[in-house]
What does this fold into?
Amino acid sequence: MEVALTHHPRQGWSDSDPSAGFSRRDLLKRGAGLGALAGLAPVALAACSGGTGNSTGGGGGGGGNTGGSLPRPDNPVTWPIYADNKPIANGLPPEQNATLKVYNWVAYVNPQSIKNFEKKYNCKVEVTTFNTMEEAMQKLQTGQLSFDVFIPTVDQLGPLVETKLIRPLNHSYIPNISNAWSEFENPFYDQKWLYTVPYTIYTTGISWRNDHVPGNPAALKNPWSFLWQGKYKGKVAILDDYREGLGLGLMYNGQSDLNTTDATLLTAAEKSLLNLAKLTNVHIDNNDYTNIPSGQMWIHHSWSGDIAAAAQYMPKGVSVDVVSYWFPADGRGPVANDTMAVLSGGSNPVLAHLFLNYFLNTDNALENISYNGYMQPLSGVTPQRLIKEKILPPNLTSTVVLESYFSKGYHELELPATANTTWQQDWLDVTRGV
It folds into this structure.
């Protein structure tokens, strides 16, 4: 089903808006918490030959890897290029009188950016949205949907490459990759950027209303314990996401491996979250972008992009200065990025390449960030520029994602299938206990 693009988040969500209450991250890539566990079966994709170099590639999508070595920062992967799925030729003109079909998350691209691309290339762009990556992968795997551009998460690249759903990129059409951080010209999950370009980047940290909650997580021996404050009972929330939620429990317990397969560590993380629930009557939701600005919650486990846009959701007469966000200054916390890819079954591969190139232009990226709050990893997107363009309030520069974070930070990546099931079950136990 094709869904109309939503309005600019600076306008806030109206009660009459069918998308009211949703942000891009509210419809989360890993299954939107319990919704994924109860209503979405993981799609099973066959594992093929895998990558080359230091990794043999991945397996099943959505439900964890079923075999082979998994891409990791210390185990980079170079995906194969198959004889029957090669890059397009050099020097082809953009398709004429075309409708470029984009398959994207809800509220994750600026409608004005779409209009500008249409004008630049004299084409139409049709955006269809999905709510979860499981949903998207299931629908793409049927072969009944035809799109040109897809916005996959890093953990799905193995299944996408191995089933030849995405096309290898012809770099000659994407010169703007030179604007990207060097990290993304040879990312560990897609060495030599053979299949993807970077889209958005974000960290996971803690936001709070500093007019109600004094102090700062950075002042604590264990900053993640900032949420474990019983005196703010009823005003504490964590993200509704099995990887982020249990990841918080792991970090509270002093663990940094957010891809652990150790059931004992996961059980301990579960217990810490249940203790948090008992202590604070914790809420589990993905409404950090509204609940912190409104003051409905005073402390919230949060995504940086959601809090970067906090000014757009402040009550009338309340300054955004009352909102704070913490992420470890040394970068040793959860960090992630989404990607853009060209689908092999699309009818407009040249325009698809040009679409990827368009969003690697700094000015175009800034326009896009002003809509969704999520940064893009381009050298020209700096805290100074974001403040100058009035995209980011000066007091929320802590939401800025730095290039160094990707070498120092903790990545939540594809899990082996058995471990993924354990993670999901432990999270289900947490949510049942709240």
Observations:
- The CA atoms of residues 164 and 357 lie 22 Å apart.
- Confidence is low (pLDDT under 50) at residues 1-50, 52-67.
- The longest helix spans residues 263-280.
